[in-house]
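Regression test case RT-17, inverse folding.

Input:
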């Protein structure tokens, strides 16, 4: 965990983290093996592979597993087509992550693996990339072409007015976490939980009529296994006899993940005392976020026009490939063009990663790095 929440000056309960309104502390006593600068893609892959020699910083703990072990990975961050964001350094690219999983399988370092993934366009991390013969079952918060959604946000009915000014959870994540909290996981299968989470996440529409499509990838036969093998269970739930597994649609208000930062700064600005330094600071943060979004919108579209002409640009940039295909053919090209854009035009940011499909399409159209450099410098210099 990046570990920047508990002690943040905007946290009204210093040292405490909650993941629902009026919720219990979910921070105290939780192990923190890698925090801050040590939360990066290199350490993430090294931990999965059990490769202690590749680590930098942190506790040194890795997944030192063998052929009889069950592995559970839950990953949540912002993302975009083909990438997961990290608090530090490079993105985790979909092809690299899947290659790490293939390497773990080739080493006979597990019996089966379950991967729960929360991010925008999270389906693109496995779509056309995760084979069904690796003994890995994955579910994602959204399909390959849509954003995911935050919930338990400040304007939720019944939320404490002064307690927080940001969203506390992700709809997909709170759905599986709250389902797991309630039941004897020796009796519930991965498939049953998938169905519960799918219904709740797709129907997250009590207020906004929005939600995302939870997807399954990899070896779907594993979905018949018990959750207990991957998550354990709470002994307090041993006598649970529930037949109903929270199948009703969510009536929570939800917010597109790409707008969460904007919402946070707006609430900071709204709540700050008139004329105060905090008011001015929040106003600047809000204006900077709006300016960044406008810059990314403009620069990607302008680069597309320079490369393909006004008439063809949007058609190329907005192309969505058929289901079952990864977003790009040449991942090295994709990485080079992303880094080229960010070198000349600045970080894409949480908001701008939605345009990674456009950059993938630029690659698929055969644009060279030199052409991308020229278009980027003309647009952003």
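Golden output:
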């Amino acid at each position: 965990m990046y570990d920047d929440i508990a002690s943040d000056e905007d946290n009204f309960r210093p040292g405490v983290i909650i993941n629902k309104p009026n919720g219990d502390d979910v921070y105290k006593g939780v192990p923190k093996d890698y925090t801050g600068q040590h939360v990066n893609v290199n350490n993430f892959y090294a931990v999965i592979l059990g490769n202690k020699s590749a680590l930098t910083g942190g506790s040194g703990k890795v997944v030192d597993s063998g052929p009889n072990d069950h592995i559970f990975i839950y990953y949540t961050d912002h993302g975009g087509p083909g990438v997961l964001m990290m608090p530090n350094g490079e993105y985790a690219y979909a092809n690299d992550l899947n290659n790490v999983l293939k390497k773990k399988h080739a080493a006979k370092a597990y019996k089966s693996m379950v991967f729960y993934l929360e991010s925008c366009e999270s389906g693109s991390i496995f779509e056309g990339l995760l084979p069904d013969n690796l003994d890995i079952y994955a579910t994602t918060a959204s399909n390959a072409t849509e954003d995911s959604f935050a919930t338990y946000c400040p304007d939720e009915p019944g939320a404490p007015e002064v307690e927080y000014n940001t969203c506390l959870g992700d709809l997909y994540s709170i759905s599986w976490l709250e389902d797991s909290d309630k039941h004897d996981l020796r009796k519930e299968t991965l498939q049953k939980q998938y169905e519960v989470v799918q219904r709740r996440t797709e129907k997250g529409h009590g207020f906004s009529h929005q939600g995302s499509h939870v997807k399954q990838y990899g070896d779907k036969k594993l979905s018949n296994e018990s959750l207990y093998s991957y998550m354990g269970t709470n002994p307090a739930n041993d006598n649970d006899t529930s037949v109903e597994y929270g199948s009703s649609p969510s009536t929570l208000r939800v917010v597109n993940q790409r707008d969460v930062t904007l919402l946070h700064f707006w609430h900071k600005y709204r709540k700050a005392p008139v004329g105060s330094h905090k008011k001015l600071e929040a106003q600047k943060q809000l204006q900077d976020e709006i300016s960044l979004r406008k810059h990314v919108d403009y620069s990607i579209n302008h680069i597309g026009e320079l490369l393909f002409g006004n008439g063809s640009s949007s058609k190329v940039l907005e192309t969505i490939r058929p289901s079952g295909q990864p977003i790009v053919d040449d991942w090295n090209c994709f990485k080079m063009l992303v880094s080229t854009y960010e070198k000349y035009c600045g970080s894409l940011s949480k908001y701008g990663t939605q345009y990674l499909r456009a950059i993938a399409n630029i690659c698929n159209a055969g644009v060279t790095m030199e052409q991308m450099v020229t278009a980027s410098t003309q647009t952003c210099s």
